[in-house]
Amino acid sequence: MIIIKETFNSTCVLDDFLLPNTWNIEIKAHPNGQKDKDFFTKAVERIQYFVFDVLENSIFVSYKNLSLLNNIPLRAQVHVFPDEPWDHLVAMCLYTKLTAICEEVLFIESITVGSLQSRTVSHNFGDQDGGGQVLHDLFKEDEEALDIIKHWYKPNPQVLLLHEGLKLVEQNWDDSDIDIKYEKSVDLVEGKVIDLKEYKKKPPEKDNDNNA
């Protein structure tokens, strides 16, 4: 088993409050014995990149409060959740995203999330709770939420950039082959920018595009 412990900071929009928060996460994962051992290190690098360069110093917000950010004259990375970004939902979304990022090179068993705002309380989510399907099932009656959570299932990092409005930036791993050959650097290549209205478009029922 591999145990990864990381810390990052974000600002949470909860109702009409802005709350700075520090998150501590512990990820438990099992290597896939059918993959080359060199892949395991690169999978961990992907997780670390996502934490340090995508989550760090970002804004966490529910899609219901997304409009509050439209007119803020600041620059920031924004992550959108299907409900208020309390610790239990953050744990569920991160489990889903990290599972996608690892692309079966590592199997994420569980993730435990604790935060400054939650003090001594931590939240755990993993295979024993139903795995990645739970996030979809929990919000299947909310079409707008389903439009949002599809991005947590993508293996590539995606963020909304807050600057003169909100725009979705889609980026690809430099080695984005679905089999994770890891022949190139783990760094991100330049992504494309699309309007926010595109962010809410429904994907096809079977979305096999790993670069979107």
Q: Can you characterise this structure?
A:
The protein has a single domain (about 1-200), classed as Tetrahydropterin Synthase, Chain A (2-Layer Sandwich). The radius of gyration is 16 Å and the shape is globular. It has a nine-stranded mixed sheet. The protein has helices at about 35-55, 85-100, 135-140, 145-150, 195-200, and strands at about 1-15, 15-30, 60, 75-80, 105-115, 120-125, 160, 165-170, 190-195. With about 210 residues, it is an alpha+beta fold.
CATH architecture: 2-Layer Sandwich
Q: Classify the fold: give the CATH topology.
A: Tetrahydropterin Synthase, Chain A
Largest sheet: 9 strands, mixed
Note the run of SSEs as H and E: EEHEEHEEHHEEEH
Spans with pLDDT under 50 lasting ≥5 residues?
175-191, 201-212
Query: How many helices in DSSP terms?
Result: 5
- How many separate structural domains? 1
What would the principal axes of the Cα set say about the shape? Answer: globular
Keywords:
5 helices; single chain; alpha+beta; globular; disordered C terminus; Tetrahydropterin Synthase, Chain A; 9 strands
Quick overview:
By secondary structure, the chain is α+β, with helices and mostly antiparallel strands. The chain is built from five helices and nine strands.
Secondary structure elements and pairings:
Layout: E1 2-14, E2 17-31, H1 37-55, E3 58-62, E4 76-81, H2 87-102, E5 106-115, E6 122-126, H3 133-138, H4 143-149, E7 158-162, E8 166-170, E9 192-195, H5 196-199
Parallel strand pairs: 1-3, 3-4
Antiparallel strand pairs: 1-2, 2-5, 4-7, 5-6, 7-8, 8-9
